[in-house]
Specification:
Length: 666
């Protein structure tokens, strides 16, 4: 059974693996070649294996490679390709045997050691995995650089598990923090900061927010953002006073002395935190003779609406059979439907441990945490549900979507919240709160709808209406709402900005500039109106004005990829190709998958008379743009609850639970 965090890691690993396959013919060392002679039939089998592999027929390729290798067991290239095909098909144990043959034949091939270590990791032979991954790291990745990130990430995980936190931090910080940081990397960095010797998939979901907070601080420290890290550590100490790892990190960063940070005490605290953070293992004991009777009794009580008897009986049955998926799910739904959200969390944690790919359970866990005011974990787990996909009634899916939107806004991710909440508004009782949440996100105000004072509800409700109208291209109606709001609330932050951005999207640049300049007066510390003004100036070819606005944006937000990007474009427009390259490269480090940045980097390199680099950037742009266009074409048909993978047949219960709940496949 795959664990929940390895799913995201393996999507990352599979992407890298595809690059590996593309690179193999060019980058493998010269000695990996099919022998020129051998037993009769070998050459035919080798050709058939190669043809099947190149055509994507994995099963046929495996069969031909195995037959060829039985005739010629010292064919290094055959073992390599057999291993990579099996690895891509998640056949870890068989792939491990193949890569073991590769390193036996060529002990100095670093990528083969790395693949061997990754296979050992997946088969949970962590000691062997650490040895092999370290060997691969030491030998280097010259033959296949694309595997480096995946291999070193897993090496860092095993170093953390082994208690070698400094080496793990050095490895992660040197490679993964200079651009957008993946969530799994933050989790690893967080475990290292807190000195918790666990793998990410071993972390109890209730501790996700603590480790995520530590990971964000570790990223700031790795980027040498010391003042931000100190402020975040101070907040973490207030939020989690029992986690001494934050106090130790604070003392280390500030050199504030050893008071309260005795090494022995910290070591003991770290061990205790690790014990509290470790998932409880499932007991796969064989059901005894009482289980069937208890299960029938629990089901009957649930069907008759006797919630109290049902919950008691499910608890008894689950003590006998802790791996009973349907029981944990039914118990969770009973608690949730009775608004006993705190009690629902424990069985939901068991559920996601047993079925980590079950997005509906992650959604219910996030909603329960929201109701108990554990907003940090709720955000993490509702995002997890969004990635996996959930099913249920339209009302149930909208409830999950609404709560995720609110949490994104509370977390300062306003643009993502607007995009999510603009995607199809609900009818009925949820509509008013939804509009308020959307309005709060549009105006970049981090509040929950229930926190909005009565006198401001009209402002945020109508701002939400305007955002919804814009999302459905009803611009005239949206502009009328904006104009009315500006008369009533002329000094509200980001109201002029939102109106100006909407005007700019219709090329009404003069009116847009007027609104954005008004926003500059109100929100003088924000880079956003300067960024938007600079883009408009570039559109109308007023490059000197664009340069002034972009420089103001970078002054206010030096870590903003968008600010660096627009400054790079403005410098390019004014003829400073070298300066443009510097800014665009910085933007690319922060946002490496943006096709627009690579497009303008190609232009800058071309103007700087560096044609080879320009051609590389054009190729990267073409590749990324194809991916973005494909995603854009799919986005219209994918609602919040639609999985990108195989959908579960489980439905998400609404907050006010119906009398019946869905069943869980065994």
């Amino acid at each position: 059974m795959r664990n929940r965090r390895c799913d995201s890691v393996h999507r990352f690993a599979t992407t890298i693996f595809l690059l590996v396959l593309l690179a193999l013919n060019q980058n493998l060392p010269g000695q990996i070649n099919a022998p020129s002679s051998g037993p009769q039939g070998f050459e035919d089998l080798a050709r058939q294996a190669t043809a099947a592999r190149e055509q994507g027929h994995a099963n046929e390729a495996v069969r031909f490679y195995q037959q060829a290798l039985s005739l010629h067991p010292d064919w290094e290239e055959g073992w390599w390709y057999l291993g990579t095909i099996l690895y891509d098909g998640n056949h870890w144990a068989d792939a491990r045997s193949a890569f073991a043959k590769v390193v036996e034949l060529d002990p100095n091939l670093g990528p083969a050691w790395s693949f061997l270590g990754l296979c050992a990791y997946e088969t949970k032979d962590y000691s062997a995995a650490l040895t092999a991954l370290q060997k691969g790291h030491d030998l280097g990745f010259a033959q296949l650089p694309a595997i480096k990130n995946v291999a070193d990430y897993h090496l860092a995980l095993l170093l953390i598990r082994n208690g070698d936190f400094p080496r793990a931090n050095e490895l992660l910080s040197s490679q993964f923090v200079h651009s957008e940081v993946e969530d799994q990397v933050k989790m690893a960095l967080g475990l290292g900061l807190l000195r918790v010797p666990l793998l990410p998939d071993e972390v109890d979901p209730s501790r996700d927010a603590v480790v995520a907070a530590a990971g964000s601080i570790a990223v700031q420290l790795a980027r040498n953002q010391k003042s931000d890290a100190i402020a975040a550590l101070q907040q973490a100490i207030r939020d989690y006073p029992d986690v001494l790892g934050f106090k130790a990190a604070y003392a280390s960063v500030t050199q504030a002395g050893k008071e309260g940070t005795d090494p022995a005490e910290l070591a003991q605290a770290a061990r205790q935190f690790a014990r509290n953070t470790l998932r409880s293992g499932s007991d796969n004991s064989t059901p005894n003779t009482n289980f069937d009777e208890l299960a029938r009794k629990a089901q009957a009580a649930k069907d008759s609406g006797n919630v109290e008897l049902a919950t008691q009986t499910y608890v008894q049955a689950l003590q006998v059979r802790p791996d009973w998926n349907e029981g944990w799910w039914d118990l969770s739904v009973l608690y949730f439907g009775s608004e006993r959200y705190r009690e629902a969390i424990a069985p939901l944690k068991e559920m996601v441990e047993l079925k980590p790919g079950f997005g509906t359970a992650w959604a219910l866990l996030g909603l329960s945490e929201y109701q108990t005011h554990d907003y940090k974990n709720a955000l993490i787990h509702l995002e997890k549900a969004q990635g996996l996909g959930i099913q249920g009634s339209t009302e149930a899916v909208k409830i999950a979507q609404y709560h995720l939107g609110v949490l994104l806004s509370l977390n300062g991710e306003f643009d993502r919240a607007v995009e999510l909440l603009s995607a199809g508004q609900p009818e009925g009782a949820l509509k008013e709160q939804w509009n308020i949440a959307l309005g709060l996100s549009l105006l970049r105000f981090p509040l929950r709808p229930d926190q909005v004072p009565a006198e401001k509800k009209d402002l945020y409700t109508n701002a939400g209406r305007a955002a919804a109208l814009l999302a459905t291209s009803k611009y005239d109606e949206a502009f009328a709402v904006f104009q009315k709001l500006l008369k009533e609330y002329p000094t509200t932050p980001f109201l002029h900005y939102s109106y100006g951005a909407a005007l700019a999207s219709l090329s009404q640049y003069d009116e847009a500039r007027t609104q954005l300049k008004e926003e500059v007066k109100i929100s003088a510390d924000s880079a956003l109106p300067f960024i938007r003004l600079a883009f408009i100036d570039l559109k109308v070819q007023e490059s000197s004005e664009a340069l002034n606005g972009a420089r103001n944006a970078v002054r206010l937000a030096p870590l903003s990829a968008e600010a660096r990007y627009v400054l790079g474009r403005a410098l390019l427009a004014t003829g400073d190709a070298a300066g443009a390259i510097t800014e665009l490269q910085t933007a690319n480090e922060m946002m490496p998958n943006s096709p627009e940045i690579h497009f303008h980097l190609a232009r800058a390199y071309s103007k700087a008379k560096q044609p080879d680099k320009a051609e590389d950037e054009r190729a990267t742009f073409a590749r990324l743009n194809t991916i973005v266009e494909r995603q854009r074409s799919l986005r219209g048909s994918q609602a919040y609850g639609a999985s990108h993978e195989q959908q579960s047949d489980l439905a998400l219960p609404v907050v006010q639970m119906a009398s019946e709940s869905p069943s869980v496949p065994q």
